[in-house]
Design goal:
The protein is of the alpha/beta class and about 550 residues long. It contains 17 helices and 24 strands. The strands form six sheets. An eight-stranded parallel β-barrel has the order 1-2-5-9-10-11-12-16. A hairpin with a 2-residue loop joins strand 14 and strand 15. Helix 10 runs antiparallel to helix 11, helix 10 packs across helix 12 and helix 14 packs parallel to helix 16. It is globular. It starts with a helix and ends in an 11-residue tail after the last strand. The structure holds alpha-D-glucopyranose and calcium ion.
Amino acid sequence: MPAEEMNLWYRDAIFYEVHVKSFYDSNNDGTGDFEGLRQKLDYLKTLGVDCIWLLPFYKSPLKDDGYDISDFYSIQPEYGTMEDFQRFLDDAHSIGIRVIADLVLNHVSDQIEWFKEARRDRNSPKRSWFVWSDTDQKYSQARVIFIDSEISNWTWEPVTRQYYWHRFYSSQPDLNYDNPEVREEMKNVMRFWLKKGLDGFRCDAVPYLFEREGTDCENLPETHAYFKDLRKMLDLEFPGTILLAEANQWPTQAKEYFGNEDEFHMCFNFPLMPRIFIALARQSALPIVEIINQTLPIPATCDWGIFLRNHDELTLEMVTDEERDIMYSEYAKIPKMRLNLGIRRRLAPLVDNDRATLELLYALLLSIPGSPILYYGDELGMGDNIYLGDRNGVRTPMQWSYDRNAGFSRADTEQLYSPVITNPNFHYESFNVESESRISSSLLNWVKKMLRTRKKYNTIFGRGNIEFVTHENKKALCYVRKYEGGQILCVFNMSKKHTYVELDLKQYKGYRPVEVITETRFPFIGDLPYFFTLPPHGFFWLRLVAPNEEDGIQDD
Ligand code: GLC
Ligand code: CA
């Protein structure tokens, strides 16, 4: 395969987001570590994961679970040593799994040496690495993001008597990107980790690097220019590595991070994610159709990262007030389920663990244009714990078996970094890898099967375009994914009731639909509208086999 084609690996990849501390504890001190993650690589391989996304594992006082970095060049001691990291990375590569890691550019921990120096003395050489002001009135158009804990983006520094700027917790001062030393230092951080063999970065909080008076200090041209610069460095020095943007924005602004194929390879599809849940709540396909039309097309070599849940609250910053109300009333009936402008719940609890809805959601995740990103544990239908603070309720230990501590660790239970899930409706004794592996109808086995199916038709799902099929029933979502002569028709019932839909498939007259998960032949498409009946939240993925094409099915 030519190098340029190889370098597009992210277009066909299944991503898996995992926190080192949450996956597996190899030395039984209550916290997961790189050696533990290494030991569980086979699980990820069997599941069908192509690329792991690691949450921040750098040295940190953990005021924001590692997104507050106090040393970019070292590893949080509980997670292991540099050697453990390297062994994990090399072993992942040896079984064909790539690894990208979180890169937090916008801010640091107030415990980093740079800030300690800067805050002590106005004349310190590190002073200008941060953003200072005599008043807290500058950049007043910038919103506060963590509204449940911060009232301002400025915090008073009493020793040197100025305010410093921070977009997140006050313990996370923003770096000053107007300073060329900062811009260079962060490139060195990237080089340091890429030289070890990392396959790229999930770039945290990208819209906020620069500040300019009179703007909301998001998505500024200077910020885009810096990322283009980083991309150049990657292409030149580390070809084949990627940048994935966390830019929680409206569609127009989110798309800008692809640049002209010279900025990010991938961006999370933040506009789409909440609208999938809104579509379910409204029992209507329209929110999804509308948002896909607004988020496509994108440049040829770029891709969206599609996700249903992640380690944060299900963010509702970029939806209308009306949409937010729908989300809260459907998915966050208890106030503790909310955080900032969002909902801090895992996937299965969000949908009351309804199996048909979970299957529908996965079928959407795996067939909408973009690369799917799974959040660890959601393949098991893992529960959450809304009574843990901040976003910790969705960051509890991975559930491996029905042993003590869900098989995550042999430490004393009190020693675990977080309690395991014991709510009777989601108890780890039933929801764990070992138990679910033993029963063929488990969610885990179903997800595995879906990932295998997706991979079988990877070029169509990974590279193909999307055409919506128009029809009368707004509860039904119907589209065809198409790539070089192959096409898969996807039909979804977004409603809680049975429904039917009649599709005009005349352009495929003489083709035979074949259901791809169970490999079942359907009647040929003729002149009449093609008729589907669907159970509540039911769906079909159907390959449309051309008249002169083999369908490849073994007869029973
Ligand atoms: C991103 C991360 C989130 C973190 C924030 C500040 O949004 O996903 O977990 O708290 O950035 O770093
Ligand atoms: Ca450990």
